[in-house]
Amino acid sequence: MENLYKIVIVLHVLSAVIWVGGVLFMGMIAVPAARRLNDKLRRHLLDDLGRRFRKVGWTALGVLIVTGFYLLWHWGARLDTILDLSFFAHDHTRLLGYKILAVIAMLAISGVHDFWLGPKATRADRTPEEVKADRRLASLLGRATGILVIVIVILATFVARPWV
Ligand code: HEM
How far apart are CA 150 and CA 28, in angstroms? Predict the structure, then answer.
């Protein structure tokens, strides 16, 4: 049991590194670097990077959710205490509840960004005005995801240390 917990926590943290690192790399390095390229090259580069990161990143997110639920169970949460919210009644489990809410918001925003808007914004058949509007919204959603992953990591750090 204890060994399984150790494996799960390592998988959870490794997947967090992959997801958070990838989101921040895309927003802080790849997108600004691509702005210096011409339109066609930028579209190709961001489309390719986006598609590649989508596979790796969403696999990591899947691992985070599965391992996250195991950790939740390890902490004593059960379906009934999650559904009636009594599990989240204590100070440190309340933080965990906020973290889960932030994860749900991030999943919704990243889903729209990665599977709908991002691919649409890099398609070749759009008018310059449409591309501009898509890009502006894609960049806004990308930023929101970036802020949420940082909030999630800060909450996770304190969730894991209830004595702090
Ligand atoms: C984007 C998604 C997520 C990220 C980036 C993330 C990140 C992390 C990190 C970095 C830690 C370790 C903190 C530390 O030791 O300092 C952690 C712990 C934890 N996470 Fe997540 N997490 C995510 C999703 C979830 C989900 C969906 C759940 C629950 C359903 C969850 C439940 C937990 C629990 C219970 C711990 C504490 C484990 C322990 O110390 O026993 N996480 N998370």
Answer: 13
